[in-house]
Amino acid sequence: MWEGRCDDSTCPLPQWTESTLTIEALLIPMNLPFFARRLLRPLLDPYRRYRHAKLIHAVRVSIGLLATILLTTGLNLPHGEWASVTMLVVIGGLQHHGNIGKKAVERAYGTLIGASVGLLLVVQEAYVGQPLLTYLLMSAICGFFSYHAIGKGGYTALLSAITVFIVAGHGDNPLSDGLWRTVDILIGIALALAFSFALPLYAVYSWRYNLASALRDCAQIYSRIISGQSVTDDEHLKLLNRLNAAMLQLRSLMPSVSKEVRISMTELDAIQRHLRMCISTLEILGNTRPDPRDEQATARMQVMLKAEHRQIRVQLVGMARALKSGVTERLERNGQASGGESTLDAPVYSALDGYRLLTLQLAANVDAMRQRLAKSAGRWKI
Asked: Which residues span the membrane (predicted)?
């Protein structure tokens, strides 16, 4: 079995302790001074980086802006403030590592397109000298970009429109100003991309820890079901709502996770499907269990399915711990119920048959999910 024995099927779930957080934190070189190890631990520990992602991002943006200001001021570049503006536009949003490459290409295209169009508008204003024509052209061009800003490639189109106005103003900027602003924008993009890769937030961290929390919520819901607690009170419904929100968040992270750790979307979809089936089965189990007011039926159910109840709960908590700590050896251990033939295999015909079949389905689904996580552990454990 995965954990120590607990004969009571309703025993409390294990709680996270400092020793179960992350094994990756132990990989900090021990030959470093003590103060250096303590200083680096929040930066190298995946769980702490996940928890403090906003703070790390804020520090990264602040340092990036400072570097941009010092560079443009030190070189005495005209209109150097636009490099800082570009830095904020490009790096301001928190991006996962798996999206940085894609966003970098979109930013480069958007800036080059916008700067080119802006310079052309400045040139035509200088030669034609018709402000009204320039205003109409700028409005039409930005309307075109706005049309394409909705849907795929929208970020490139939006950045192009912004860059047009940065470079050209209202069309009356001198050509030299437009060229200098283009240079400032390119400097801002280069520095922003450089700082984007400094301690990025990996989507796989968010995926791991959100999936771990979802599995623990599943274990808590299952404990409530088998112990006869209400499945209609606020606490139970709050757990279900939290699981539904976690499903949506996990789904949004999957493309970035696939790029970061080279796990196919098919494999991630399979894991997501197991979690969805687990949640659906738990909802059905809550409505098909014996009436909690029937103490005899409830006691019989707990005795008959004692080993299976424990197997399911231990596997759910075990997977959550493996995802959060990075100690994946526990995923290799078979969590099948021991101690004789499983009661789920016995052809007993009673009012509990429906509940027993659902429990069998849940146990098989949880075990299949464990096997998939074990198979892909070498990739998501970074």
From this structure: 57-76, 133-150, 155-171, 183-205
